[in-house]
């Protein structure tokens, strides 16, 4: 009984030490947020429009957005400039998701960290294991980064996949006599999905041209927002044609042919990789079937 009492007392001591460490960590986080200098975030431009659209849609975001915006101001001075630039680039590649700013991105990570620790405490109390919050906290803090980076990668893939079709339509439109803005407008109007990432980017290009920016500036901004190989080649060819005075319609026709060839090569590569990727799962399925067949036979032979 004495050993059991000592063991339970030791467990209680470790539990109190752990709770104290968690409390001290939360205090340090709050103190860092309160003592850090704040910034004033701008909501003008595309992110402001994205924010309005996100708030008009049903879901949890309209309810959470005021808290995220308030906390974003509190944590705005915690990040160094280099980290801010990287996170801002990631948000841009994600299509300015939810109209988030870098400060609100960090605020989402902090809220996810706190919510994960709270959920970990609840689960730990049920299982009598208070090491669970230690694991849940970092996972929760990293979760917004994983979601936004995954969304950015999917969006870049969609842009790369949809660009050949847009180039084809632009080549046909300019071959029929339209200028570059007219060809872009034709692609936007003929699209059945205005929320398609490639259509959103070309809508932004057309709006920038209408506001007085040069075609080169708009294309370079498109390349900055979508830094994939297909976009870089497309923008490089158009900028070079503009600088040398070559007909843009001819360049677009060459780009359309090149993009179709690249798409066919990519499809063949993916088909070849699919056979290799299926080898491992097929081996596992075969091994499982053999175990299911041979296992009962082996057990019967052992009983005999």
Characterize the structure shown.
The protein is mostly helical and 304 residues long. The chain folds into 2 domains: 9-151, no CATH class; 155-277, Receptor-associated Protein (Up-down Bundle), CATH 1.20.81. It has 12 helices and no strands. The mean pLDDT is 79.
Quick description:
With 304 residues, the protein is mainly α. The protein has helices spanning 2-35, 46-56, 61-74, 81-93, 102-127, 132-175, 180-190, 197-210, 215-225, 229-244, 248-277, 279-303.
List the helices and strands and how they pair.
Blueprint: H1 2-35, H2 46-56, H3 61-74, H4 81-93, H5 102-127, H6 132-175, H7 180-190, H8 197-210, H9 215-225, H10 229-244, H11 248-277, H12 279-303
- Number of discrete helical segments: 12
- Structural class call reads mainly alpha
Relative helix content: over 70%
Shape: flat
**Oligomerization status of the protein chains:** single chain
Descriptors for this entry?
304 residues; mainly alpha; Receptor-associated Protein; 82% helix; flat
